[in-house]
Write a structure and sequence with these properties.
The chain has 273 residues and is an alpha+beta fold. The chain has helices spanning 17-26, 75-93, 152-156, 162-180, 185-196, and strands spanning 7-14, 33-40, 58-65, 98-100, 104-107, 110-122, 125-135, 201-209, 212-221, 227-231, 236-239, 243-246. The longest helix is centred in the first third of the chain and has 19 residues, at 75-93. Bound molecules: biotin.
């Protein structure tokens, strides 16, 4: 069984925790080395977007993994990280979040956490930097994103304690990462993800994948993390990359946030920060 030994390196300010950890990995850093910064001056999000990272407003965290699983299962690494964040927010903040495929954490359909995984070549072999940004207060995101972003303190009505969240995150990452590396790891992660996400089944979504866009209903997750979609024209698609936007809120589901009724704008939900 893999036991992830974590070691946290702390910084006041960095351009990006992912960039710093990538540098350390290329110098031979071990699996489990993590970087946390109070602020990022050039925080990066998916799809070349910037990730707003003002001082003290978010948890800006990256961890180095050197997975042993076959590369076709590597998409499960970010889904594993999303499950770990979900469990952390539940335990540390009593916040029941939702997960939008593949790895955005939402509360009341608004984004509360984003995850950026980057595969890199290092002298010790292929590695992955998993970067996690959790909005702790409303200062974490620009005010123009208030309709599509939220933070732990807004979602819970209580102050968010970064150190408690970080400690929980390290524990849950160690737990789920060690399960991922077991022979039945892919099933464990797919099942854990599906039971925590209102997007696994029966959500009407639009998927934008480069030049293509499909609308359809979600029908579960493949063993490698692909999203099964039945399109409105009756085709079956497996989505392995792309942006998912909800076309309808989750109704009365077990996994979605309880704050859902408060959300006014149920329509196509643009990607946030
Ligand atoms: C997304 O676009 O949803 C992913 C956002 C990931 C942000 C985190 S913050 C810590 C780490 N460092 C970065 O530059 N990005 C990630």
């Amino acid at each position: 069984m893999t036991h992830l030994k974590t070691k946290v390196l702390r910084f006041d300010s960095l351009p990006s925790t992912n960039t710093e950890l990538s540098r350390l990995a290329s110098e031979g850093a071990e699996e489990g080395v993590s970087v946390v910064a109070d602020e990022q001056t050039a925080g990066r999000g998916r799809l070349q977007r910037a990730w707003s990272s003002p001082k003290g407003a978010g948890l800006y965290f990256s961890i180095l993994l050197r997975p042993k699983i076959a590369t076709n299962y590597w998409p499960l690494i970010t889904m594993m990280a999303a499950v770990a964040v979900y469990d952390t927010l539940g335990e540390a903040c009593r916040l029941r979040a939702d997960i939008k495929w593949p790895n955005d954490l939402l509360s009341g359909e608004r984004k509360i956490c984003g995850i950026l995984a980057e595969a890199i070549e290092t002298p010790g072999g292929r590695a992955v930097i998993v970067g996690i940004g959790i909005n702790l207060t409303h200062d974490a995101y620009p005010s123009e994103l208030a309709g599509v972003a939220t933070s732990v303190s807004e979602a819970t009505g209580r102050p968010a304690d970064r150190e408690t969240i970080l400690a929980g995150l390290l524990r849950w990452l160690a737990h789920w990462y060690s399960l991922l590396n077991e022979p039945a790891g892919p099933e464990s992660i797919v099942n854990a993800w599906s039971s925590r996400s209102s997007y696994a089944f029966g959500r009407l979504v639009q998927v934008n994948n480069g030049d293509e866009a499909w609308q359809g209903t979600t029908c579960g997750i493949e063993r490698d993390g692909a999203l099964r979609l039945r399109t409105t024209t009756g085709e079956k698609k497996l989505v392995r990359a792309g942006d998912v936007k909800t076309l309808r809120p989750a109704i009365n589901d077990g996994a979605a946030s309880q704050d859902l009724q408060d959300e006014q704008d149920y329509h196509v939900n643009p990607e946030t920060s």
